[in-house]
Amino acid sequence: MSAAAQPRRTRNSRLVRALVAAGTGAAVIALPLIGATGASAATGTSTPSTTLAGYPNNLDGWIRESLAIMAEKHIPGTYNGIHRNIIRESSGNPSAINLWDSNAAKGIPSKGLLQVIDPTFNTYHVAGTSFDIYDPVANITAACNYAAARYGSIDNVFGAY
Is the whole model's pTM more than 0.85, yes or no? Predict the structure, then answer.
C-alpha cells in the first residue's frame, strides 16, 4: 500500500492510546493489591510483618531485637558479629537443624539460627525471651550469652563454637 493510501493517524488517537495504556497499567498494578488485601483480611492468614516488640519479622529485625535485649542484660556483641555467625551456621533459617554432626549423634542436634543445642540454650537462656529454641530472638540471645561467657563476645567467634 502506498503512503498516500494509508489511513492517517491523528494526534488525538495517539493521545488516546497512551491514556488507555497508562490506565490499563494502573489497573494491572492495583488489582493484585486490592485482591491481596481482601484475601488476607477475610482468611486471617497473613503473617505479621513485625515482632511483638515492633521489630521487622525478618533476620534484620530479629538481630536488632536481640541486640536491644543484650544491651539491657549487658551481653556484648555487634550486629555484624551476629549476622556473620548466623549466615555461617544456618544461612538465616530459624528452623535449621543439624542432624549429622557429633551432637546429633548423641541425640542433641544443633537448632535454630545460631545452631544451639538444647542444654546450652537452657543454660544460657535470657530472661524475657521465649523458651522455644527455634524462636529467632531467643536463639540469638542465648547463643550470644553463651559466646560472651566462653569467648568474650559473639564477635570473637569465627567458626563452629
Answer: no
